[in-house]
Amino acid sequence: MGDRHFFNLYDASRGIARTLSEGLETRIFPGENVMLSVVRIAANRSGEIHSHPQEQWGVLLEGSGVRIQDGVEHAVSVGDFWQTPGGVPHGFRAGSSGALVLDIFSPPRDEYRRPGAGFAAGE
Amino acid sequence: MGDRHFFNLYDASRGIARTLSEGLETRIFPGENVMLSVVRIAANRSGEIHSHPQEQWGVLLEGSGVRIQDGVEHAVSVGDFWQTPGGVPHGFRAGSSGALVLDIFSPPRDEYRRPGAGFAAGE
Asked: Dihedrals φ, ψ of B55, to 5°?
């Protein structure tokens, strides 16, 4: 097994690039049962509330922000992580220094297997 | 949806405690399709090489170490992450300042749903 299974959060040359919305740039790493997405959110930017059937977890790696889940706002800081069951509406608003979030999807979101733009979600 | 879906990497009061081996302490967070495990590895400690059918990803959050996969040693530093397909033998040896690793399993490892000790793996 070679280096093709090894990546770095800060290496923007790897992964599948996707602009989720203005100021939300991600690199996506598909696995067999899991898909990782390294999301860089610019200061004070937010992604629209949306949902999808896949379970999702998020880990706040840098910065701060507000995680909105099921209509409730949760202030989060570095080290916080959260589970978002499938179908639950969610979004994120970055704080004044932006945010770096690791998102984890299972099963993988097929619509994220190719470069593109948008959340590609129903809601 | 309340705070029961929100956690912190550094809050040792949450998650299911498991000692993988001497100097490898983890807190496990089971989801529906994904299981997260926050592993604190003491300086220079290593876990035995083992394997399991579940896909695994790891993210090095603090410290340094060597990820051993399929017999190959990969030196890793903060921000590195890796995929370990199911069935691939793997282990980790922490550097001189220890390591904090986020492990991601899918599907969840049923044997990690309860407190215990050991890797609970076949190899």
From this structure: -65, 145
